[in-house]
Amino acid sequence: MPKPTAGASNRKPPEPSGSHAEVADWLTHVMPDLQPIVADLDGLIRKTIPGLQYAVKWKKAYYGLPKHGWIIEMVAYDVSVNLVFFAGAKFDPPPPQGEGSRYVKIRTLDEARAPEIRAWIAQAAKHPGWN
User: What predicted TM-score, i.e. pTM, was given to this entire model?
Assistant: First the structure.
């Protein structure tokens, strides 16, 4: 995935896989109240962006493209799911939280299904992310 990163990081990026199996397993270990939200977001990401690569590292799910690197990170906490867009600062409009990498906190299925979530996911496929 050779492309410049959206932000500086000393962390080594996850190893990409064309198989969704590792992310599917990660989904089953998320807090039960958040499982419908992460499953819905996962399905929306996979439906919106063809040709994805996947990984799980640091208890986070990663979605990427071969020419753009990792473009989306999803992490489930106790009461919310953070959907991180590595190039989110370049989006129009950008997600509300963060600086270079921008993110949104999602607490309900209604929030996960909001039109801006779909728009940010589509925009993520158009910008280089983290590799």
Answer: 0.89
- The span from the CA of 23 to the CA of 99, in Å, is 26
Q: Using one digit for the tens of pLDDT, what is the confidence trace for 37-54?
A: 999 999 999 999 999 999
Q: What amino acid occupies position 96?
A: P
Residue 13 pLDDT greater than 90, yes or no: no
Question: What CA–CA distances, in Å, run from 45 to 11, 66, 80?
Answer: 24, 16, 18
Q: How is residue 59 annotated by DSSP?
A: T
Name the region of 19 (left: φ>0; alpha: ψ -120 to 50; beta: rest).
beta
Q: Where are the alpha helices (DSSP H) in the chain?
A: 21-28, 35-48, 109-112, 115-124
